[in-house]
Amino acid sequence: MKKTITTSALFLSVCTLTMAQDASDFKPAAKANNLELNFVPLNGKPIQLTYIRYRRFLSESTAFRLGIGLSYSSTKADSVFNSNLTAGTTVSEDYKKRQFGWNIRPGYEKHFAGTNRLSPYIGAELDLAGQSSKEVTPTGLDAGGTTDQFVIQTDKNKNKGGFFRVGANVVAGFDCYITKHLYLGTEFGFGFQMVKYSDHKMTTTYPSTYPAVTPPAVDPGNPDPSSQGREVNFGPNFNSAIRLGYIF
To answer: Which residues span the domain enclosing 200?
Structure first.
């Protein structure tokens, strides 16, 4: 919270200083293009890119905006298991996890007169997003019974933490132009989100030589709304980072 207040104070000071410098109009004209990212000056990584936002100015007072975010991660690790049946015997198997996410936010902005460097606006945007994942987790087991051996049990989790989201926001903000093609800005909004969490499917496999396993009794448990079923959110939202953009 302290960093957010300090960052906001620094931002307002820069805007006040730049607006007092001259009377030239720095705001973009029709057909100008715009790209922006997040700026957190007091953070260890001051320049951040959570997703790409593009704007196309249809006129001096209207603009189309589009935010696109894509993320992919892949993890692979060698898991080594020690057998209790035979001293010094080890078995290795790979742990794997892949996760893919996406976010698309098309929208529209209406800009007002403001000042020569300050461009306040209101607008609206859609929010479409999704995430999928796959995780393979091996576990070493000492098989008993007539087959005395050390085997690997493999758990496959599909779409653990996966979801599909649809929403919409009404937004308001402003751009403060430092130079002819560079600006700092902030934005807040009010909207809703409907989230449908993916069905989490887990399967367990054993080697063909493993003794027959009696499935345990199924316990449906208590649904967790943060990872199962559906969720609806409605209220204000705010990006604590400063928007840093340039016109081309």
So the answer is: 2-247
CB 186 within 8 A of CB 36: no
Using one digit for the tens of pLDDT, what is the confidence trace for 66-110?
Answer: 999 989 999 888 877 777 666 666 777 788 889 999 999 999 999
**What is the Cα gyration radius of the chain?**
26
| E-strand stretches of the chain | 33-39, 47-57, 62-82, 90-111, 118-143, 149-158, 163-177, 182-197, 201-205, 230-238, 242-247
Number of alpha carbons in the 13 Å side-chain half-sphere of residue 44: 0
What's the domain count of the chain? 1
Is the Cβ–Cβ distance between 31 and 55 less than 8 Å?
Answer: no
d(CA 28, CA 35): 13
Instruction: Give residues with Cβ within 8 angstroms of 30, minimum separation 6.
Output: 57, 58, 59, 60
CA distance 155 to 236: 40
Weakly modelled stretches of the chain, pLDDT under 70: 1-24, 42-44, 46, 48, 84-89, 142-149, 207-228
Q: What is the DSSP letter of 159?
A: S
